[in-house]
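Quick question, first post here. What does this chain look like in 3D?
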Amino acid sequence: MNINNNENTEVDAQLTEQAEFGSGKIIDVDINREMRKSFLDYSMSVIVSRALPDVRDGLKPVHRRILYCMYENGITSSKPHRKCAYTVGEVLGKYHPHGDASVYDAMVRLAQDFSMRYMLVDGHGNFGSIDGDPPAAYRYTESRMSKISSEMLADIDKETVDFMPTFDDVLEEPTVLPSRFPNLLVNGSSGIAVGMATNIPPHNLGETIDAMCLLIDNPEAEIADLMECMPGPDFPTGGLIMGRSGIRAAYATGRGRIVVRARTEIVEAKNGRFKIVVTEIPYGVNKSKLIENIANLVKDKRLDGISNIEDHSDRNGMHIEIDVKREASPQVVLNHLFKMTQLQTTFGAILLSIVNGEPRVLTLKEMLQYYIEHQEKVIERRTLFDLRKAKERMHILEGLKIAIDFIDEVIAIIRKSKDQAAAKLALCERFGLDDIQAQAIVSMRLGQLTNMEQAKIEEEIAALGEKIKEYNEIIESEARRLEIVKEEAMEIRNKYADPRRTEICAITGEVDIEDLIPQEDCVVTMTKFGYIKRMPHDTYKIQNRGGRGVAGMTRRDEDVATEMFISNSHDYNLFFTNKGRVYRIKCYEIPESTRQSKGINIANILPLGAEEKVTSMIRIPAFEEDKYLIMVTKQGIIKRIALTAYDTARKGGLIALDLNEGDELAWVRMTTGSDEVIIATKKGMAIRFRETDVRPMGRLARGVKAMKLKEGDSVVGMSIIEPDKLILTVSETGYGRLSSPDDYRLQSRGGKGLTNYHVNKYGDVAALTVVPMGDDVIIISENGIIIRILASTIRVCSRPAKGVTVMKIKGDNKVVSVSGAPHDEDEAESAENDENAEAPEDMVEE
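> Answer (accepted):
Ran it through. Tokens below.
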């Protein structure tokens, strides 16, 4: 112990002696205080000078230095590309005292179309990929400024921003760029500093400028007002944002969780199996790692229902195909993918940026306000610069005008002078000029003494006078400066704005989305293989009876259009399946398509099980207590249930009724509780009875027999008898007739019914429905042809009659679906002007 103490004493003595002789004194420092001070200095350096963007131009120092260096060296969008190594070297040598990797990595990101919403660097060569492939070394790649990045440095030579010394005090660099568009919101930013981080999503340029202009016009605008122009982020990789609550939170508080999903579609292959096709993935997701993660989940048996994954992506776009096993539900598999993989991610928005040298979390309105203030300051400083230059030029021109007015005397003075200095002095004494004016006079060329040049000087003086007046108005008026900010922003918008890429979708619980969706009538159609679409109800023009119709959709071979109805965009739509289940969605949730489009498979909307298909759809404006649903199966089983029993939102659907083995739910209609029901069969029978013959049942009940069916017969139609409406029967062969409900006498439920149609003569019955004479009838054939005719053009016949030709049927084609639709006078089109219309066959009543 003594030896150690002695050794320590000697060491201390040596250190003290070295300190005394080396520096002459020793300063005692509290280690805790010194560590805190040093770490705070380091933290602020990282926050302000490295990791966080400035609220005014949205750039970190390294990005600002890259763009300014390229601008300074003339590597603009109108000039050829230059080696990235040249730019990296220039940035390092002049402005950025860090490693070359930091500069090149930042430059690469500015040139990636999957990282930047609007690229600020135009790259030439390998700058990496969305699969995570690294960029080529900077000695191989080339770059230049993009067109839009030139707008960020516009007027920087007019003293619009402050400059500061570089790290070695040799040059100066800008503290911020003028930035003629709000780059912080447009391209977003991400960075991790010390004790804080920023994560600002990119936005659409046009929408951002619209919101900025709205705030200029109305400084009291709230977040809701701004979101009408700027509904949410717009990621370069597209995708879907699920709901608006996270967006509102981020815009209102500076922090929010935004759920982003890949854009997917469930499609049916030719072999009848389903595929999940991914065409867009969430922002920041590595595609290769995503596919690898899915494959590992399948391999580890944590994810069932997937048989194969293939990546068909190329330069034309992303295309990932995920094959679903035959026994699996594609919607269920997709939901598992969203839950377990990066097909769905959460973007944690943190709107943190540097404001007046300090980090602050801002709201959307504050970010736009700071940018508008910056632009107003840029306009003011630019105008002051232009005003000073204009006054300087005016000052010189006034001297030149004096010289020309007294040209002979000026020439004489100059000729008598010993040198230029003496000539300037003499001119100043004679005409009261200053040194600048005198220098301009002695530097005049002889050609400037002509009368034409004198006129030009006078014109220039007058023009400068107008400019000086305008500049003074701008400097004195804040409203005028804001007007210029708005005008210049709109110029950028008109030049560079493009359509939104990221779709914002409604989710359960966010009903405010309905306020943004117009209420309109729609035609909803669905095919045998489950392709559904929504169209404006005036898509099909009126034709005469017997016309050939127009193509209703583009479809795969052997597909059949089986369902059609009219619904308001805000109505609930109930989907009943052959398995006896019911699903509920709003009509606007069905994607809108064109008339020629085949639509989207219903499996993209509803979580249908294996072999489950939608067989009936009805619209529900509201779930009223005095309303009922009547359900009929193909085997003639009927069930009556209160409508409110299905007023439950459940993603997996509800059980509508219990089915016998081999039976399927086929038709569902809404009733008042005291209606009469008519049911028709394929083999020409029909029965009419009171709704009250069927007692109300529970949701899980099976039902009772509606009518006795012969062997091989099945139900093809069920409707509710309504006043002033006739019963329309259409055969598979294209014949149809209207009949009075009085032709069908009232019977008791469970009987055989009455003869409705002579199927042995005219073909099996395709459908039965009730329509008023003033309505239209929409008929769909097996090959997808749709015709819309006036119900009044169909002959009213007695119950067993053949009727008239309502649709021409050729070959093996046949009618498969009939639906009524309200008549619209604006749709009416005369038969003489309709190229599809043909003269109907003679009316024949059998």
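Residues 1-7, 13-22, 550-558, 826-846 have pLDDT under 50 and may be disordered.
The first helix runs from residue 2 to 22.
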